[in-house]
Amino acid sequence: MTRVLLYLRFERFWHWAQMLLIVGLLFTGFDVHGSYHILGYARAVDLHNAFALALIVLIVFAVFWHFTTGEWKQYIPTRKFLREMAGFYLTGIFKGAPHPVKKSRTAKLNPLQRLAYLGFKLLIIPVQVTSGLVYFFYPNLNAHGWPPWTLRAAADAHVLGGFFLLAFLIGHVYLTTTGSTPLTNLKAMIFGWELMEEE
Amino acid sequence: MLQMDRYDTRAMRPGSSAHPPRAVGNRALRSRWAGRRGTWLLNVPARLLVLTGCVVMLSFRAGAGVVPSGTGASPKHPYLEAHARQAALSTADHSKFAALKGPFADGDGPAVTKACLTCHPKAGDQVMGTKHWLWRVPEKKYEAYGKGGWLINNFCISIRGGNYPACTKCHAGYGWKDSSFDFTKTENEDCLVCHDTTGDYMKDAAGLANPAVPLDEVAQHVGRPGIANCGGCHFSGGGADATKHGDLDESLLDCKKSEDVHLAKSGAGMDCVDCHTTEGHHIAGPDYLLPANMQETPQYPGQKLGHMSCVSCHGEAPHASFVLNRHYRKVACQTCHIPAFARGGLATNVWWDWSTAGRTKNGQAYEEKDKDGNVTYATIHGSMVWKKNVLPTYEWFDGRMSFMLATDKLPAQRPVWLNKPLGSYDDPSAKIWPFKVHEGKQPYDTQLDKLVVPHLYGDKGSGAFWVDHDWATAIKTGMEIAGLPYSGHYGFVRTNMIWPITHMVAPAKDALTCMDCHSKKSRLSGVKGFYLPGRDRSSGIDFLGWAAVLISCVAVVVHGSGRIFFNTREKRDSK
Which of A54, B179, B311, B326 is the most exposed place for a label (fewest CB within 10 A)? Predict the structure, then answer.
């Protein structure tokens, strides 16, 4: 067994900062939506806007980091082992079968993760950012002739995206427990290192 | 962070011996990913990011307040001071003028006016063109508008049914007792009703000066109109104090700051005319044509007649919060800053049912009052309901109103709206405004399908309803006096009226909060045509969203319990 630095420092910072911001956005967002009233509308709106701006800044840096380091290649979808991965989650995991895909520094994501995170990055995040920006700047856009239904559309997309983020988050957190021990993946994401079998 | 430092990537720089990695990874990978470019790239963005985050958070904190910048309550009340200074600097002392020495005969108002005009010769012509004199819109096209025209109201209905002397008690003139009143005689203008500073001036039927008023004394103490001058009539709209408007009543003469920040002596200490500025006796204010303009923003009160607005003094961005300031495009200041009207302890009339009027006890007219002294039934008026601290009704309003005239056929809809604010979300000059809605029932011609103008005020036997209590004659007589066709058949119809609320501005701390509108129990539940965050939601989206979350949860529970189940079985089997 060797220890491999799977998640680099910026990557870990990015992940956990993103986690805090998204949890904050969900918490304040559903308050604004009226699902509950904990912070109150005014504070929830202010915090939601602040978190959103911080997340956008974080995303800009993360995009920069992914391209300058070449890490974006980690997310290129592949069909290799896709069936095996699905099979592992559907049956193998219950029988104690070994993980079908070996992690390495250059390929730390299994094919399902690749699909999920690529979808997250290319679908949920852009939809949330775009609809959020339209939502926020709607008064200005309306002054330039954007009709009222654009606000409704942006709001609906944003709310739906929020729900999907929550659903994603639940599944994501659960799947962290599917490592060699329930906390293996979580520890790796915190400290960066993971124990791996020698090749 | 401390934890992360344990695995500082700098320790893995090739050739670095400072902190050799405790475990040896793939050397090629290390240099490829973490070493060559990683070190500085990893740190610089991270540091910049943290810095940016801090700046962002700080900037948001700074702008998060919702209290207007101007609320640092100054112990000096600028307008009280300004009024005192103005008065001290006056170059005239009216008690010294020979023309005003009198003595004026009891009730001889026109004599006083003639005396005023000897020094203010142009004033007579100025007043002649004003709405306070004409009671109608000066433009020919709209001359039916105004209480002297053919508008119908929800209170005493119309002046036209021969009710002149009762209504014109509030006319800025003397002797308008019927339709023959001469609007070209300057001596019939009433200077004192607006300019009396003693508080002793009173008017009687047809607007004549009460004979008990010491005219010499009053004439020698004229000055700038105060709240009592304007309020003498405007607080009593609808026939008595607090009846009509709801945001204007006698409580404002000496009110707490919590009732009206502007008029309270402990607030800004303003007078009505500080906002309702004057040009040549034309007083700024909305009338039937000139909207209370909401898009144009005068730089100072009175820059443009009729364009007084909150913005003249407070600017377009009075809140510390960017998000709050943006509401200005679609929400009138009044909407949030007048949380309720009739807040001064006096109840305002919200229901006036003429159909029950005319009942007598032993042939005598009678009145019933509630415990606060509000008339709930009167033979001469019918049934009434009064309310305090009334939540406004909210409507889109671009400053214009539609009005029903006595000559208009009734629309099919019930209740009949005698006036209605115009505007919608799509109208860029419209905003959400607070309104008082007044409901009632009044007589109408069931054959011609038009409202009628009953004769209410008059002598016994004249057919006037207030003394004879008979609708059939009162309506017939009123329509004859007005010169309008009448079928002889009457019934009662539900009619509503609506007025924008703009006075009784509350202190900032009492303004509405976000949740008053942005929630499922929104005050704006009746205001349509747009998506209001917090109030509106697409139920389909919520259903879809919760379904996704539920599926996710179920999948996690099923999958997780499956793992636990098979895992424990495996352990048991292996034992």
Answer: B179
Please state whether beta strands B490-500 and B416-417 pair in parallel, antiparallel, or not at all (unpaired).
parallel
- B451 class by beta-carbon count within 10 Å (0-12 exposed, 13-18 middle, 19+ buried): buried
Contact status, residue B340 vs residue B516, Cβ threshold 8 Å: no
Q: Which of B36, B431, B513, B556 to probe the A interface (max A CBs under 10 A)?
A: B556
Q: In this structure, are residues B217 and B202 in contact, taking their beta carbons and an 8 Å threshold?
A: no
- pLDDT in the model for residue B289: 58
B116 and B21 in a common domain: no
Say if B43 falls within a structural domain: yes
Is it true that domain A2-196 has CATH number 1.20.950.20?
Answer: yes
B225 and B354 share one domain: no
Task: Give the least confident one: A43-57, A154-168, B305-319, B475-489.
Answer: B305-319
Instruction: Give the structural domain span for B29.
Output: 2-62
User: With helix as H, strand as E and coil as C, how does B64-81 read?
Assistant: CCCCCHHHCCCCCCHHHH
pLDDT at B359: 96
B495 and B384 co-located in one domain = yes
Q: Averaged over A19-47, what is the pLDDT?
A: 94
Query: Which residue's entry shows tokens 């860029």?
Result: B428
pLDDT at residue B57 in the model:
52
Q: Is A5 in the B-facing interface, judged by CB distances under 8 Å?
A: yes
A34-93 residues touching B, CB cutoff 8 A: 34, 37, 40-42, 45-46, 49-50, 53-54, 57-58, 61, 64-65, 68-69, 71, 89, 93
pLDDT reading at B270 higher than 90: yes
Kindly list the domain boundaries of chain A, sorted by start residue: 2-196
Domain match, B377 and B430 both: yes
Residue B445 lies in a domain: yes
* Residue A105: pLDDT band with limits 50, 70, 90: confident
Q: Which residues of A touch B22 (CB under 8 A)?
A: 3
